[in-house]
Amino acid sequence: MTKTKLLAAAGIVAGLSVAALPLTSYAAENVNINVTVGTGLQFSVDANTVSIANIASGDIDETMTTTATVSTNNPTGYKITVIDADTSNALTSGTGSSAYTIPAITGSTLKAGTAGWGIKGGTQTNYAAVPASNGTPLTLSTVNEPKDHQATTFHYGVATSPTQHSGTYTDTIIFTATTNN
Amino acid sequence: MKVKFKFFGLLAVAFALLLGSQTVLPAHANDEEKAAYSQLINPAKNYLELNPGDVRTDSFDIYNTGLNPFSIHVYAMSFQTQGDDYQFLDYNSENIYSQIRNWITFEQEYYDIAPGDFVRVNYTVTVPDDVPAGGQYSAIMSELIRDDDSAINTINRVSMILYATVNGETHLDGYGKILENSINTFFTEPPIFVSSLVKNEGNVHATATYILNIYPLFSNDPAYTNENSPFESTVLPETSRLNTITWKGAPALGIFRAVSTISFMGETSTTEKIIFICPIWLICVAILAIIGLIARAIARKRSSKKA
ipTM of this complex > 0.85? Predict the structure, then answer.
């Protein structure tokens, strides 16, 4: 009888010990895991240069495009803006007194025979001038949620005048990706 | 036993950190998906608390996530917004909230980065002794350097927005106004949305928090809620900001009770409204049916009079 009681008591103690073991272990060895995930923003533009092989004077060309791709985990998304790299937003051929230009578009429509160039795409549905570097950037795309490899294609339109001087007209523009606040 | 737990604990932390870094980096992108020139900035926004006279050093990383090596130029510009919808960003403005662009210097302004590699860009913010308290905002740019000569040359640039607060007499709670928290009654098609306008009359940025709950008319179980993950937007000082919260998954037909709550600079506004969503064609069919019933009733009445 005494032996049975002893065994029963030992069994209860052993059982309680085993039951308490994980609790004491966890209590002593809690590991808090804190992971801070930063806000990242990845941006690429498919081509560094866009060209037209040849455009006749008095003509319109709308074949040039740029595709910008953005990935971000920012909860409120991102914006893509564009601005000219310098204070002149015209396409320019030559320099100094022998420089010829295709000016930035005024209004939102290209007219055959009237020199002008502009950009559209994303949330910018009509052609607009790329602002000069001292202006306010043109917002081309606003996305209000996180995105992975979100591609947006922008289109360029160039119109030349009937007397457009022959040559290669160039300009440099900056696409900027910024997280929304 | 303890050693074993510690070992597994450390292993778990290391794994979690590894997992965390993988979340930011697009490690899954294979070469086919990669662009020729692609850069990733991390973090893309940073918050600093400064004191007059402080010299603070911080950093961000630029990853080359493209296929080709490239060089970058880093520099600081202003960061302001234009319009209530915050649609236009202004990197050139000069006002009391953009002085920080002149306080930022870089350890190095130009870097070369190989594909798959990254550089840590260290910058120092030297705060003058006599600056007023309040918000200071800058867009720190990382610009790819290129020298091509084509019709239109495009440059890829990413920015890190720096939200800094100079401690002192900052005006936060009590300096905000919730000007609008409105819900439309009728929608002819999804989505259902609520719009709001808040104004920050303080001298430092503040966060507006937007919670939208939409319940079926006779139930308290929300059909839509963002309560667990409220939408938040940063409102810069002396600006107003429009915001829209949208329930994209709304059905085409239904009657709901919408509750919109906005918290901003110590103020809270709640608007509750019964909303109807019904397609236009169904409204037309209903009107035609009613007209038909009325016409039929009139015709019956006339025929019964004649009889």
Answer: no
